[in-house]
Amino acid sequence: MALTKENLITLYTNLVRTRAFDRAFVRRLGEGKLLGFFHPADGGEAPGVGACSFLRHEDYLWGHIRGHGLPHMISKGVNPKFFMAEHSGRETGLCRGISTFHAVAPEFGIMGAAGTIGSGFPVTVGYGLAAKMNGRGQIVMSCFGDGTSNRGTFHECALMVNNWKLPVVFFCENNGLGMFVPVKDSHPVADIASLAQGYGMPGVVVDGQDVIAVAEAVEVAVDRARQGKGPSMIEAKCERFCAHAVGIPDYSGAEVRTPEEIKYLRENRDPVTICRQKLLSQGLLTEEDVSRIQAAADAEVEAAEKFVEESPRTDPSIFDEVLYAR
Ligand SMILES: Cc1ncc(C[n+]2csc(CCOP(=O)(O)OP(=O)(O)O)c2C)c(N)n1
Fold first, then answer.
1. If DSSP states are collapsed to H, E and C, what string results for 18-39?
2. Is the model's pLDDT at 1 over the cut of 90?
3. Is a pLDDT exceeding 80 seen at residue 264?
4. Is it the case that residue 279 has pLDDT exceeding 80?
5. Residues in the ligand 1 pocket, defined by CB under 6 Å
6. How far is CA 190 from the centre of its chain?
7. Which residue out of 68, 117, 148 has the highest number of ligand 1 atoms within 8 Å of its CB and is therefore the one to mutate?
8. Which residues pair with 140 in a beta bridge?
9. Atom of ligand 1 nearest to the CA of 148
10. For position 325, what pLDDT does the model report?
11. What residues does each domain of the chain span?
């Protein structure tokens, strides 16, 4: 089924909102207002937005570390002000401010998150089995990076998910770097999606800078999962316009990535620009729409920051309540 005009505008809007919040998180970290650290989504927003914009609320989601899952959460309907509050250690956050960025939002199918990369795969099997058994038509969107696909858990879990024909979409966000390690140094094949064949599921590669291409590939995989035909794998080849995390050097292998390289990527591979130009050229968006969507995203960030700053800081005494069962 072709994406409607409304769908395409939703994709663009979610990209713009993600970019605005991602930038605000980076700024807030510099201002000492964000707890912990931050791995920006900058440049790599389209995979998460394309993967999650048309999921159902009740579908299970394991997001990805870039933007600490902002593209995925925003697109799945989570109000980012509650995630900003969480990341800022506020009582109004998704988990009352105690998780920093490993937030959960069960009403949106986000049951957990963890810092150990690859730990999402075993729970993907569990979510998938639950979804298959409960017959409610839920699917599991299981997102991970190229580096994360090297964990043994991926291979064990891909086997089980395929043996049991669970309704799972394995969604690899391949930004060419696992922290600092170029993917060509960690993978013997060009396409991580080619792993899919060994487990008996379809595997496709899409341009991860093109949110529309991502959403179209996801639609096929999600339909297949909902129809009980089993799992699929999508590899979105994407970019990262920043270092792995804020405040660390930007290496690719032994090489420092130069400002010129990043400038080239920003000018030629920006997912927001690519989507905007496509929709403008097809007459689906006007310059006025573009300004309105940007202004709404900026206003949403401003309102979220006000909400967070007015929210009480989490009192450490809540650990007595949340850690121990009486
Ligand atoms: C088991 C484990 N090993 C190492 C790390 C440290 N680490 C955090 S992110 C990361 C890189 C992950 O690479 P990738 O999956 O490609 O993600 P991306 O490049 O998109 O950040 C590593 C090695 C970790 N969190 N968990």
1. HHHHHHHHHHHHHCCCCCCCCC
2. no
3. yes
4. yes
5. 39, 65-66, 115-118, 144-148, 173, 175, 177-179, 244
6. 23
7. 117
8. 60, 168
9. 15
10. 75
11. 5-314
